[in-house]
Specification:
- It is a single chain.
- An 8-stranded mixed beta sheet has the order 1-6-7-8-10-9-4-5, sandwiched between helices. Strands 14-12-13-23-27-24 form a 6-stranded mixed beta sheet, sandwiched between helices. It has a 5-stranded mixed beta sheet with strand order 2-3-18-21-17.
- The protein has 3 domains: about 190 residues, Phosphoenolpyruvate Carboxykinase, domain 1 (3-Layer(aba) Sandwich); about 230 residues, Phosphoenolpyruvate Carboxykinase, domain 3 (Alpha-Beta Complex), CATH 3.90.228; about 55 residues, Beta Complex (Phosphoenolpyruvate Carboxykinase, domain 2).
- Helix 1 packs antiparallel against helix 3 and helix 9 runs antiparallel to helix 10.
- A hairpin with a 7-residue loop joins strand 6 and strand 7.
- It is about 25% helix and about 25% strand.
- The structure holds adenosine-5'-triphosphate and manganese (II) ion (MN).
Length: about 525
């Protein structure tokens, strides 16, 4: 179905065929017709993309009166001039002439008080299906008088010329807060659509007293909300899909005066080596019509081979949250009672679960630590540390201190308990030890959320001053204290000191402007 140009007339687009709010059937047909992907034998639309992850170095924010003093420039927030934005937009509009474009009118945010209305204009049919799955779909009534606050224009076939266009490569994602627009070219990775709007909310919401968070969220049987912060691969999606708790969302939430709300209407799960027994709910989405499977290799018979990482290890399933049976239908929950910071510590040093004081919470939130396992190709055998402030530096336009203060206020007012959970290595660093068992991690988290750790004794380890429970139902005691889990105690001490030094080194850039009590809770490499 094509309609007239009218919905995009303001962009100056000429002679384009527009598909307005196409549904799943049509988007399958169009994606297949345009050669973007195929229908997997199990139901999903399977696509391959030129980039298999985000392009954080090609992301820019227009620097103007609105952003000059409000954005924290440096790191991932790279300024670009309004002129460059305008010129690229003009070129994109010219490039789009004669093409067909897909438009989805969606919300970012389940809470009607805080959501923004977005018009997502994409060249790829598969992006349109991804957006339909991942954003909040308006009701037919809401669509009738839908007024977009923001517009995203994403045209992967438009490639910038770094020599003349003022960008770094042929790929760019530029946010313009004044014009309320994001333009993107050069990359087919659909995750840019979702994380682009995430960055917008992360800029807008703090001004309204709402804390935007890179976290998953779920609700227990007695209505208690839990949040799970963490960098990529630490377990936000995996651990929030808990059979005993209702899922609110797996990646992006806001904390208001009354509770939390999901920014999204779907989930974006990693599916490499997905185990149907350990993660049945996520596995089922790979066998469901409507799901988008990104860079998953299909076998000869058209079924997905989830163990095949030959295109990328970052294979993904994007599905509407309705595919998860045990979900919270309105995407909202009450004030959190527990907050879990997830880290996948490939050094095997941090305890599998520990309790954080308010100062330690600030310290860990600002540090945002995880450790990647060594890459296979370059002969590196040591893990590499990642410190990404607020557990999501690439998505946070403001100064980390702003987010940290807002979170601290909310946590204090709520009395929520805060936990640090290491979903990474145990019994030795990557190579010697092994990954923490998912079963044990789930048991530890459930014990914390159910209040079962309120009555057990805790011991304090010397390097990070973390309080470790001495017993957790369903978990062998020797797993709980990381030093006990290592056969070679001297090696543990040495590795712990090394990690403590890395924490301190990283934190130097934040020390100024942080409460001295927070700085006093720093790890101690001399213990
Ligand atoms: P992203 O921000 O990229 O979406 P994420 O935080 O949602 O990342 P997951 O997609 O949940 O992370 O990835 C965690 C991965 O680690 C999964 O593949 C999961 O199966 C695996 N895993 C192995 N052991 C554990 C454990 N003990 N706890 C959590 N995840 C584990
Ligand atoms: Mn996730």
């Amino acid at each position: 179905m094509t309609t007239l140009n009218a919905p995009l007339a303001d962009l100056g687009l000429k002679n384009v065929r527009i598909h307005l709010n196409p549904g799943v059937d049509q988007l399958y047909a169009d994606a297949i017709r345009l050669g973007e992907g195929v229908r997997a034998a199990t139901g999903p639309l399977a696509v391959k993309t030129n980039k298999t992850g985000r392009s954080p170095k090609d992301r820019f924010i227009v620097e103007d009166d609105l952003t000059r003093d409000t954005v924290w420039w440096g790191g991932f927030n790279t300024p670009i001039s309004p002129d460059i934005f305008d010129r690229l937009l003009t070129k994109m509009v010219a490039h789009a002439e004669g093409k067909e474009l897909f438009v989805q009118q969606v919300y970012a945010g389940t809470d009607p008080k805080h959501r923004i209305a977005v018009r997502m204009v994409t060249e790829m049919a598969y992006h349109s299906l991804f957006i339909r799955n991942m954003f909040v779909r308006p009701s037919p009534q809401e669509l009738e008088d839908f007024q977009a606050d923001w517009t995203v224009l994403n045209i992967p076939s438009f490639k910038a010329d770094p020599a003349t266009d003022g960008v770094r490569s042929d790929t760019f994602i530029i946010v313009n807060f004044t014009k309320k627009m994001i333009i993107a070219g050069g990359t087919q990775y659909a995750g840019e659509n979702k994380k682009g709007i995430f960055g917008v909310l992360n800029f807008l919401l703090p001004e309204r007293g709402v804390m935007p968070m890179h976290c998953s969220a779920n609700i227990g049987a007695d209505g208690d909300t839990a949040l799970f912060f963490g960098l990529s691969g630490t377990g936000k999606t995996t651990l929030s899909a808990d059979p005993t708790r209702r899922l609110i969302g797996d990646d992006e939430h806001g904390w208001t005066d009354t509770g939390v709300f999901n920014f999204e209407g779907g989930c974006y799960a990693k599916v490499i080596n997905l185990n149907p027994e350990a993660e049945p709910a996520i596995y089922r989405t790979t066998e469901t019509y409507g799901t988008v499977l990104e860079n998953v290799v299909l076998r000869q018979d058209g079924t997905p081979d989830l163990d095949d990482g030959s295109l990328t290890e970052n294979t993904r399933s994007a599905y509407p949250i309705d595919q998860i049976d045990n979900r919270q239908p309105d995407g909202m929950g009450g004030i959190p009672r527990n907050i879990v910071f997830l880290t996948a510590d490939a050094y095997g040093v941090l305890p599998p679960i520990s309790r954080l004081s308010p100062e330690q919470m600030m310290y860990q939130f600002i540090s945002g630590f995880t450790a990647k396992i060594p890459g296979t190709e370059d002969g590196v055998t040591e893990p590499s540390p990642t410190f990404s402030t607020c557990f999501g530096a690439p998505f946070m336009p403001r100064h980390p201190g702003e987010y940290a203060r807002l979170l601290a206020q909310k946590v204090e007012a709520s009395g929520a308990k805060v936990w640090l959970v290491n979903t990474g290595w145990s019994g030795g660093m990557y190579g010697q030890g092994k990954r923490m068992s998912l079963k044990h991690t789930r048991a530890m988290i459930n014990a914390a959320l159910n209040g079962e750790l309120d009555s057990v004794a805790f011991e304090r380890e010397p390097f990070f001053h973390l309080e470790i429970p001495t017993e957790v139902p369903g978990v062998p005691a020797e797993v709980l204290n990381p030093r006990e889990a290592w056969a070679d105690k001297a090696a543990y001490d040495e590795t712990a000191r090394k990690l403590a030094r890395m924490f301190r080194e990283n934190f130097k850039r934040f020390e100024e402007g942080v409460d001295p009590a927070v700085t006093a809770s720093m790890p101690n490499p001399d213990a």
